[in-house]
Design a protein that fits this description.
Number of helices: 1
Strand order of the largest sheet: 20-19-21-22
Shape: elongated
Structural class: mainly beta
Radius of gyration: 36 Å
Strand content: 35-45%
Number of strands: 68
Helix content: under 10%
Largest sheet: 4 strands, mixed
Oligomer: single chain
Length: about 600
């Protein structure tokens, strides 16, 4: 009995030692069922082995598989053509650290490397042997082999959403040897605790704290104050809860664009570090001699200029200094008149938009070396940067994609079919009326031309002025800025001014009642009064029995507030106005603030000092 058992185990061991061939495994495409060995391999760089699979042939030949020079024993390539690297089967690959290749394409990387990229689309996705110990893949458990991005980390590590690295510190964006060097957006690094904490309270806009009690380093474009808080600029004396500058130090003014403090009035854009004005507000230019903003509306050679000692040396954005020492709205301009270019430098062409471009046959350009629209029967080829004559497949095309082989935008009056990349008319009413481009199937519109919106139900383009959202493409359900929703008719009506005394309840209204004859809810910072009219309750500084008597006074701003007996505090472009009762024109004043007086145009002007 024991001999029988020993014989059985001997036979079992013998059977297990016989090579076993399987088609599709180990690069084998055909098996010999007599020998149990592979008889044919998938690629000619492999030959059958004695284990039932295939092994590299290790045969090198100059001129074959991109090899330039073989080793002495002719089994390995020693030197490849430019742009190729030797691998262990005697050939060459375009991929460094490759172990096996076929016709220049990497099939397998060296140990501790992983092959990244799509083999089916080598034109747009180059293969890469990426080190498993690289920063991108360190502590990574699962990798997307098409993109090389880590999709799952090892235990005790988490995948960071910012760069897909595996980190061990919550809310950390970058770390070195377990110490965080950069937190994700909205968090600051507490060095004492080695933690990333949320930016809030006294640590709003803080980048790093050493002791955990006050901020030591602020975010970019923010500055550390004496009390360890982050302010928007260097010359701010009072900081708000959201780090906005409320007041500047004496001798400085808030600029009109970004509230940075500048030492000169009428400044539009100021340097946040040194307080110098970089650009003046509308109708002013910067005189570099004293750094002050001065009026540029005088029709002379200095119109729009920044001047030094009676010389025009620079122009404020969006103007450029031409060769005639005048300011124009385009680069590469030689001569101009009142800011409009009329001739360009050599090699540049003047389009209908009075801008200079180096693209011949261009009529509208977004800058001086790109064309936005070519002349009739031409389209802009993005890759080469030229306007070329229309050819088959590009009829009515305005410009191509980056590679220049597909149309990416059609001319006005046509839409782009993303299925065949051809342009079709969008002028006729139907599913593609006013359509800009379709989805990839070419059967449904996905975006509309300017001033039209895409309906959510039928995917057709409709025009309801001021409408933001509609579910049935017929009635609007949500209006945009400066419009109120008439619920009954499903249309948007202007709400930033009064056009009809009978519909004054639309002023600052958000949406009406179901009958469309009174306001139901107001825009932010406005409340419904007893007359169902939206009244400003935020900018009133003095009340009597719940009725506003005086509005907030603002200085150095584009608009102010004046008191209207019907609507309360309303926005006005006037300065020095106390009351304005004309509901159709908020720029007509009835009563001025102290220090101002009414002129014959119902405007408030500063009183002149009496020298007598």
């Amino acid at each position: 009995m024991s001999k029988l058992i020993l014989t059985f185990f001997f036979i079992l061991k013998l059977v297990n030692s016989i090579p076993h061939c399987l088609i599709g495994e180990n690069n084998c495409t055909k098996c010999n069922y007599m020998t149990k060995l592979c008889s044919k391999c998938s690629l000619d760089i492999f030959i059958p082995d004695l284990n039932g699979g295939c092994q590299p042939s290790r045969k090198c030949s100059v001129g074959k598989n991109y090899c330039h020079e073989c080793s002495d024993n002719q089994d390995m390539c020693k030197k490849c053509e430019v742009g190729y690297f030797p691998d262990r089967n005697g050939g060459c690959s375009t991929t460094d650290n490759c172990e096996l290749s076929y016709k220049g394409e990497c099939l397998q990387c060296k140990s501790d490397y992983v092959l990244i990229g799509k083999k089916s689309d080598l034109k747009n996705n180059l293969l890469l042997c990426k080190s498993l110990s690289s920063e991108d893949l360190k502590n990574c458990e699962k990798i997307n082999l098409n993109t090389g991005i880590c999709t799952k980390c090892k235990d005790n590590f988490y995948l960071n959403e910012g760069d897909f690295h595996c980190l061990d510190i919550d809310n950390c964006y970058e770390s070195t040897f377990g110490i965080c060097t950069k937190c994700i957006f909205g968090y600051y690094f507490n060095k004492k605790e080695n933690k990333c904490l949320k930016q809030e309270g006294d640590f709003s806009r803080c980048k790093q704290t050493i002791n955990g009690l006050n901020c030591d380093i602020c975010d970019e474009n923010y500055f550390l104050s004496d009390e360890g808080r982050c302010a928007q600029n260097n010359f701010c004396s009072k900081v708000g809860d959201k780090n906005e500058c409320l007041e500047c130090i004496p001798g400085f003014y808030k600029s009109e664009y970004n509230s940075f403090c500048s030492f000169t009035d009428h400044c539009y854009l100021a340097d946040i570090d040194i307080g110098l004005c970089r650009s003046c507000s509308k109708d002013y230019y910067l005189d570099y001699k004293d750094g002050k903003c001065k009026s540029n509306q005088e029709d002379n050679e200095f119109k729009y200029c920044r001047t030094v000692e009676e010389l025009c040396i620079d122009c404020p954005f969006p103007y450029y200094l031409g060769e005639d020492s005048k300011c124009s709205t385009t680069k590469k301009c030689v001569t101009s008149e009142n800011g409009i270019c009329n001739s360009c430098s050599d090699g540049y062409y003047l389009g209908l938009d009075n801008k200079c471009t180096n693209v011949k046959n261009c009529i509208y350009s977004d800058d001086y070396f790109h064309c936005e629209q070519c002349i009739d029967n031409y389209y802009y080829e993005v890759k080469e940067g030229i306007c070329i004559l229309e050819k088959e497949g590009f009829i009515n095309c305005q410009k191509t994609d980056y590679y220049g082989d597909k149309c990416s935008k059609c001319r006005e009056g046509f839409y782009l079919n993303k299925n065949d990349n051809l342009c079709y008319s969008n002028k006729e009413f139907g599913n593609f009326y006013k359509c800009e481009e379709t989805d990839s199937s070419g059967e449904v519109c996905s975006s509309c031309v300017k001033d039209y919106y895409l309906g959510k139900k039928y995917n057709r383009c409709w025009k309801i002025e001021g409408c933001e959202m509609s579910s049935d493409d017929i009635k609007c359900e949500e209006c945009g800025k400066n419009h109120a929703l008439d619920v009954k008719n499903g249309i948007c009506l202007i709400n930033n001014k009064i056009l009809d005394d009978n519909k004054k309840y639309y002023y600052k209204c958000n949406r009406t009642n179901e009958d469309g004859n009174s306001c139901e809810s107001c825009k932010e910072n406005y409340i419904l009064n007893d007359n169902k009219i939206c009244e400003d309750n935020i900018h009133c500084v003095e009340k009597n029995n719940g009725v506003c008597q005086k509005c907030e006074k603002k200085e150095n701003d584009t608009f102010n507030y004046c008191l209207n007996s019907v609507l309360g505090c309303v926005e006005t472009e006037m300065k020095g106005c106390l009351k304005c009762d004309d509901i159709f024109d908020f720029n007509k004043c009835n009563e001025c603030l102290q220090g101002f007086e009414l002129n014959d145009k119902n405007q408030c002007i500063e009183k002149k000092e009496n020298n007598n």
